[in-house]
Design goal:
alpha+beta, ten-stranded mixed beta sheet, 3 helices, 38% strand, elongated
């Protein structure tokens, strides 16, 4: 019996040593997820869109963004030209109760937008945001993820800062759309 135990221990030691020596670092290959992401990128490129992951954070303290842009209501959801190529549709907020954004920004500066949005229930939390660029059109889509198990968010609304990195936008005039499920918001942006 002791030889069996020694053989198991030796086998585990050898397996552990080989695994630690030759283990691939970084991203694990997930065929379904990787193929879906690749298809999403190809379909967006075919539709003429460039997708940029932007920073979406929930500030702990109240932050005031210079708000000089006139923000108007817009039709709900993503535009059809963007909605059709997306393989996986984002979970968008229901509506926006407040949007503060500057009317102009320098091309070498970050563009910060403060949004307060309503969520369908206490089962979603902010997970990130994407910017879709096509010509003079910018579409912002904050993404929310469903909380698993019995976890709940504290409120069914949230305030977030969406930050487009410096150098992302070329100089010019843009029409910005902030997508929501029931209602979206739109404004004009001048990048100089």
């Amino acid at each position: 019996m002791k030889w069996v135990v020694l053989a198991i221990i030796a086998g585990l030691a050898l397996y552990t040593a080989l695994t630690l020596e030759y283990r691939k670092t970084g991203h694990v290959y997930e065929p379904y997820h990787d193929m879906k992401a690749r298809a999403n990128v190809m379909r967006l490129l075919d539709a003429g869109y460039r997708r940029v992951a932007i920073d979406a954070s929930r500030p702990a303290d109240a932050v005031r963004v210079s708000a000089s842009a006139a923000v108007f209501p817009a039709p709900a959801g993503l535009p059809d030209a963007l909605d059709q190529p997306l393989v996986e549709k984002p979970i968008l907020p229901l509506d926006y109760t407040r949007v503060h954004a500057a009317e102009s920004v320098a091309a070498d500066s970050a563009y910060v937008i403060e949004v307060a949005c309503a969520l369908p229930d206490h089962k979603e939390q902010l997970s990130g945001a994407y910017l879709y660029v096509r010509g003079g059109e910018l579409i912002l889509a904050p993404e929310f993820e469903r909380l698993r198990g019995e976890l709940l968010a504290r409120t069914d609304d949230t305030t977030a800062l969406l930050t487009i990195p410096a150098g992302t936008l070329k100089p010019g005039r843009y029409h910005v759309l902030l997508a929501g499920q029931r209602a979206s918001r739109a404004w004009s942006l001048q990048v100089h």
